[in-house]
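Handoff note, outgoing to incoming analyst
You'll be picking up this chain. Sequence as last confirmed:
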Amino acid sequence: MLATRDIESVWEKFDSFPMETLTKAWYYRRTSGSKQRDISLMKEHHEQYGITGNCFDLAIWLLHEFGQQGIEAYPIGHHLGTPHAHVAVIAKNANGKRYLCDLGDQWLKPILVDADSEDFTSDRLAVFFPAADVQVTSQKDVLLISYHRPNGRISRQEFSLEPLDRSTFMGAAEISQNTLKKPPLLECRVPYKTEIAHWEFYNGSSFMSTTEGIINEPETGDKEVWRERIRQKTGYSKEFLLESIL
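Most recent structure output, in case you need it:
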């Protein structure tokens, strides 16, 4: 179920990239034009502030990097045009096998989605997602993912594996970048003991999801404390966090 090295090597460039909506709100206030940033601007902002973006930013950037390496890839998504929109990327290796690459949900690794492949299994698997086992089932062009949490809770997600055409994808991206929800959300992968855990900041609280369970951090109303916590987890610049944590 693991991706081949060509796909993994591109994916690994994004290991330290959070998914967040801080950048969306920050950039929305800074421009009167299109809200979806292009690749050059995303790279410029990352170089200057350390920032990344939401699932559309990450998918656009990942597609670009796959293209630079000559790897065929395309976007997929669900609930496009709504506040619940989510997108990811399907990448094909040299043998045409398809792998789900989902930076928006902060997966640890790409995963095989072709049910007819001899390497495919629908068993529960670790190592692919922080603090959860995943099960993947695929029928025709519908992908169903089940996430098994340490507390026994199971959540599910469904994708169509049909490629989104560029106009639909970019139109949905623009809608998403113009859809501001408060409070902002930030998720990132962080080392914890012998695993990679999932850290989340949302609505005045932060916690880390681990295979041992959820570890809640002390609550605070002090924005300076939040800036420092986020800076430590992400490496985002103090200048950006001063402007974005209002």
